[in-house]
Amino acid sequence: MELEHYSHPNWICHTPLKQRTKNHKEPQVIHCHDMAGNYLEDRLIHGGTSSYVYNFKYWQFIDIFIYFSHDRITIPPPSWTSVAHKNGVKVLGTFITEWEGGLADNSLLLTQQGDTFPYADQMIEIAKFYQFDGWFFNFESHFSPDQIPNLLKFLQYITQKIHQVLPGSLILWYDSVITTGKVAWQNALNPLNKIFFDGCDGIFLNYGWNEKLISESSSLAGERKLDVFTGIDIFGRGTFGGGGFQTHKALEVIHNQSNPLTSIALFAPGWTLECQSQNRKTFDLTESKYWTGRNFINVMAMSNTPWDFQNKEGWKQTEEVPPHGGKKEESWVTSFKWCKRSKVIDLYELGLSELVLNDSPVLNFSVWIKGTPPNTADFYFLKITLLDTQKNVIESYDSGILTTSSEWETVETTMANYGTGLRYISWEDGGKDVEYWGGHYGAVISSPSILLVHPERIGSISDYVKPRAIPINTLPFITSFNQGVGNAFSLFGKTLSEKPWNNLFDQDYLPTHENLVITGQTNSIHTEYDYKRMYHGGSSLKMVTSILPGRYSVVRLFDVEMSAPMSGPLNVCYVSSNDTKLDVGLVFELDNSQKIYFLPQTLSDPNCIPPCKTETEGRWTKRTFQTDSLKNLLIHHIDIILFDPTTLNTLNTKEPTTQEGTTLKGQLNLGYIEITPSLPVPPQQVSNIITHTTWNKKSTTLGEPIFDVIISWQNQNNKQTKYVLIKDEQQKLIGRAFSNSFVIPEVHFPSQTKKVFSLQVVNEHYLSSDPQSFEVSIQ
Question: What is the pTM of this model?
Fold first, then answer.
C-alpha cells in the first residue's frame, strides 16, 4: 500500500498553523478540493508556468481544507498547507478506497500488532512529517460485517492518538460505510453511521439530503451538531438547491442564523474554474460571484452583434492564443494596411434595464496583442465609447497608436462612475504591420472582453458565513496583495520576469472584504486585482473611485486578530494613475474602537499620524509611519482612506465638508502594507552550494551539449526566507526556489565548459542578500 513510501523532505510544510479564535456556536465550513484529479501544477514546489489556475483566496469563509484525489493516500501539497496555515485554516489529507480494488487495502489497513494499528501509526507519522492537520476517511469499498468492530477500533485509535501527537488535529469520516459494512450513503446522521461519528471528530454527509434529514441529523447529534458537516456538491450532482451559484439555497436550510442545524462541507468549489471561467479575469470575477455575491455579465460573449470589418481581406485567423491559459479562443493577424473592426452593442438587448445601467456599473475592457516576426514592433489601437439612447457620448477611451512586441500583452481599461444614461458600448480596434509587406505580418489581436460588474448582488456564501479574521499571532503583517499567480513577476516595482507563473507559497494575506465602504458613497469605489502593475509578486489591489470635494471614502480591507501589539514602522506603498490627484492613507480600528489615521498630511485631528519618511521607487510612492506610541494597543480592522488632498481638511465623519469643485475620479493601486516589530535587515547568504549536472536528451537531437543543472544549498534563514532567486550570468531571473534545491533545465554549453549562476535570498520583508555567484562545469 502507498503508506509504506512517503518520505519527500521538499514536501514538508514549514508554516505553523495560526490560531484563530473559535466561536463554538458558529458552524464550521469545509472546502473539499477536488479539481480535475488534483496534483496539477500545485504539486510543483517551485510553481507552475500558467496564471490560469485555481488559486483559492477566500480563506476567511472556511475553517478546514481537504485536499482530495482518487489516489489511495492523498498528501496535501505543501503550498496549500502553507497558505492555509497562514490564514488559520486546518488542512487534511485523504484516505480513500473505491469499489473492488479497495477491498484488500481495507483489510490491510485494519492490521493489528497487539493493541496498536501500525497503519494508523504510520498515517499519524505522515501527518506529523509533512505538518498537516489530520485525515479524511472515505471508504467507497465495503467491509465484511465481522470487520466493523475492528474498523471502529481503528477509527477510535487513530483519533485519540493523533490528538496526542498533533494537538488540534482532526479525523473526519465520510458518510459511506454503514454498520453492516456495506457502502450505503445515508445523506444524514442516523443509527446506521452514528457509531463512526461517535468514534472520530466529525462526519461529512453525502449530498442527497433534504430538510427533514438534516433536521433529524442535528437532533441526533445533540451537542455535537456542529461536528456534522452537511455536504453540498458544487457541481450540483443530486445536491439540495442545485449547487453552483445556487449554493446559498442549501445554506439557507443548514445555516439558520439563530440556531444553525449543522456545519457545512463544500465539495469541489473548483467548479468556478472548471466550468464557469474562460481566463484569469473571468475566474477572479466568478470566484467573487460565488463567495461574495458580486455579480457580473460577460457582455461580449452574450452579444450577437456581428463585427463590421474594414479591409476584411487583411484579417486572417491564427492558431496563436494568449498565454492566460484559458480556453482556446479566436485570434487574428493583420496585414500591411490598417485592418479595423468595430461593433456597437445595445445593452438593453442583453436584458440590462435602464435602472441597472443608471447605477453606472463598472465596465472592464481588455484585449491581448502581440507582433508578428520578423519585426514584431507592429501597430495597434483601441477606441471605446459609452453612448446614451440618442448615441451621445458619455465617456470614451482612446489608447492611441500602440507598438506591439514579441510577447503577448494586454490592453486594458476600466470605466466606472461615469454617470447615468448608458445604453450602447462601441468597440473599435485594429492593427497593421510595420514592414508594409504583402501577406499577414501585422499585429496579432485576440478576441476582446467586456465584463460588466452588475450592481445587484446574488445570494452567496458570504450571506450565511461570517468572514473569519486573519490571525496575526506574531508580527510582521505583510501583504503585497499578491495572490500567488501572475502574468509577470516584480520586486520593488521592477519587472524581473514577463512570463506567467503560479505558486501558492507566494500568496500574501488578502483582503477580508471586497468593496465594503465604511464611510462615503457605497457605489463610488470598485476594487479588483491588477496583474499589469504590481510592487511585489504578480498583482496589486486596484481601486477605481470618485470622491466629492472635501469628502473622503473609507474602505475596509482586513479584519484581523492581532495579538501582537504594534511597535515598529508601518510602510505603505501605492501608485496613482497619471491623470488623478487621488491620495491614500490607512485607518486602524483598535480593540477599544478607537480609530488611528495614517495620512500624508497633518489634519486637525489628534488621531492623525503623519509619515516620518516618504520615498519614491519608480512610479511607486512609499510612506513610512512610526507606531511606537501605539505599542500597547491591538488592531481589529485595517481600512484604506481615499481622498483629494487639495480639498480634505477634516476627519469629522459625522459632517464631512462639501466644497465646490469637480468630483475627483481616478485610479489607485495599493502595492504594499507592512507592519513590523522592528527595522528589518537583509538576510544572510546561503552556504555549502553543491551542483551536479545530468545529460539532457535534447543534446542528441540538437547535436550540442545540453545539461540539467541541479543545485542544493544550506540556508540558515529558512524560517524568514520567502524564496531564493536563481539568476544567470547576466542577472536575468531563471526562477525562484521555495526549498533548498533547484533544477535549471536545459542549460546549453555550446562552446564553453562552464557557466556562472547566482543565488539571492529574499526574506519576508523582500530584502535580498548580496548575489552569490557559483560556477557549473562540464567535463
Answer: 0.93
